[in-house]
Amino acid sequence: MAQDWNEKLESAQKMLPLIGKLHRTNNVVTSVFGRLLIDVTDIDIIKAHRYSRLATDKELSPQDTLPVLEALSDLELGTASIDLGRLAVKYAEVGGDLTEFLKNELAEVIGTGADVESRDVVLYGFGRIGRLLARILISREAAYGSVKLRAVVVRKNGDKDLQKRASLLRRDSVHGAFNGTITVDEENNVIWANGTKIQVIYSNDPASVDYTEYGINDAIVVDNTGRWRDREGLSQHLQSKGVSRVILTAPGKGDLKNVVYGINHTDITDEDAIITAASCTTNAITPVLKVINDHYGVKYGHVETVHSFTNDQNLIDNFHKGERRGRAAGLNMVLTETGAAKAVSKALPELEGKLTGNAIRVPTPDVSMAVLNLTLEKETTRDEINKLMDQVALHSNLRQQIAYIHSPEVVSTDFVGTTHAGIVDGLATIANGNHLVLYVWYDNEFGYSNQVVRIVEEVTGARPKVLPARIDQREL
Fold it and tell me: Do the Cβ atoms of 364 and 412 come closer than 8 Å?
């Protein structure tokens, strides 16, 4: 075991400079079955390869992917996200000349160039979701350079507002410390985060900000305040100079297009100046429901959400306009309503009128669970469902939305920081004929924020080409 470990370590250490060079020179990000190799150590690389045992018959080691990485370094690759694990497995099956194999597999991005056009992004509001969006956008800019966080718009709360907001970005009780450095330029109202200049703009009116004064043009404004949720309210952003599009981080009202990335993001058109990213729960359950409906048909069902408390609730008992939400969030399970079940049909019209839903707020700060109680058109078994969800999570075009876990020891804190929209807990699956119960974990803060950023990248044309191409889940 010691010799095997040392061999893995040696190969991983040889991979590090090659990974960095591909990123710097070609704007290529590498992964091993979806585990991104960004800002990694040699141990991180070994751990990523360990994960491959879930996707292949034989666990890969860095010795297997090092030759692939070395050959990639000699190709004129353009911007892309390239899975070394999938390439290594496929090459082991087909054999032949490695360079020629890679040229054929990656033809779409060979010679396409690494230069990308950056788009400006503005965060309107800087609460729980806003600060996580900032963290993700900063890391995505470092990875691909295609989206750039330029400004944050907030209401000023005292003389130390800037310092306090920078501190909240720097430290988070749930998600830990910011990965990098943060400094504050009080004279110019700027927060510097890993070299990204974030202009802090103080305003109470979304229609009166002149972003062009700060060199911001054609910007995507991500409204994470939840204050306006209809077309009339959100249209105020479009009256400001320098804004071209608005994305709401909440379910929209009226005729606004609710988008769940991975499900209906291709429906976004150039005419959609305002779109919404639905809710965290809708994002968690819609991809899973899509898979189940495509393979087995959903006749009807009920969604029960066990949801962590949020800032909307009271810390201790006090007046609240919502029913039950005035009771102490840290002491009680609070039965409340959710529109997530009905909202699914805005992304999946075929489920219109088939789902009901309710929610229970519980005394945890992050990570929630949705229980999908479904009646299907076809009969199935627990093993059949779990095998399907496992394959979807590993190989399909919904790999970023759906993860799968099969462990008797996982609890909610194990899913803090997941980038997936939802994680199916295989050991909890119940199937009896055409009756199915699925348990789906989700980080209602970070997982959802990643879905929002995927929409931002979609509307800006900044989503990198993923190779080898993933399989449509309907073909599994």
Answer: yes
